[in-house]
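[Meeting: bench + compute handoff]

Bench side (C.D.) handed over the final construct sequence. Compute side (W.E.) agreed to return the predicted structure before the next meeting so the bench team could plan truncations. Sequence as handed over:
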Amino acid sequence: MFAIVYKQDQVPMCARLRESGPDAIVTWDSAAAAGAFLESKGAEFVAAYSVVAIGDDSLKAMAQAMGVNEADIELVPFPA
């Protein structure tokens, strides 16, 4: 699985920081699919975001950047 995050702070593009329920990270099955989504949004998105493989370290970094516990993150496939 892959996620798209801001390059600077590793916050996922589709994180929904809400008062109740888990925060969501939208995922793609391949880096190519995630990259194609970014490219469809234009050059400024390609420059501002990066595709990141979801693993223990990257998920921990995303949770820390969002200020939540890893257990509070919901991984949602795109398209949902």
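W.E. noted at the follow-up: Residues 31-41 form the longest helix (11 residues). C.D. will use this when planning the next construct.
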